[in-house]
Amino acid sequence: MQFLLEGFEKGGIFMWPIALCALVGATIAVERAFFIFLRAAVHGQVFMAAVQRQVLDGNVDGAIRLCNAEPAAALPRVAKSALLRADRPDPEIRDAIEEASLEVYPEVNRRLGYLPMIANVSTLLGLLGTIQGLILAFHAVGEATAEARSTALSSGIAVAMYTTFFGLLVSIPILVVHSVIAARANLLLDEIDHYGLRLVNLLNAVRNSTAQPQGGGPAGAPGGGPSVLPFPGR
Known about the structure:
Layout: H1 2-10, H2 15-39, H3 44-56, H4 60-68, H5 74-83, H6 90-109, H7 114-143, H8 146-211
Helix pairs in contact: 2-7, 2-8, 3-4, 3-8, 4-5, 5-6, 5-8, 6-8, 7-8
């Protein structure tokens, strides 16, 4: 810690914008991680298995209540939009899912793009400080007196090295955190697409099954209706 404080003091004026990058980057990373890993996420396989059980039992209201239990989560919000139109034709259900997805996607990806930008700015500020330190060092060699030359030269080199060090110290963790959060966000969006489509197919299958006369459906399905493929984990 003493080394960091000493380096910050000797790094010159560009240490302050690098510190600002660190603060802003950490704030965005913490907020996005909290939202994506905790608020917007559910165990998709377990959740959709529970929804399917309710739908197959004819209890769509029960499936909607499962979605209402996770009001901030992305997948339940999209699933609820389909369940609210469970008695409507297939195109309306698909449109509802698409509309809900278009609302959820920006919320999941919000501010994530700032993290690599902040990391790049931090690196460039460190490079700019390095150039400033080298200019100070060359100036000391060319114009300072013999007595002051050594001190001025070491001061310029310190500015050059510390700004580079702190720029990378801020940039590298931000890039790593961005990669982890972005990967989880993409997984979340893939789950929405996957389970949204399966829910549409399930609702259509159940509706077609109940619309057919008893015993008049394809063989192999209970009551003569079509068989329903379960969600993973059913």
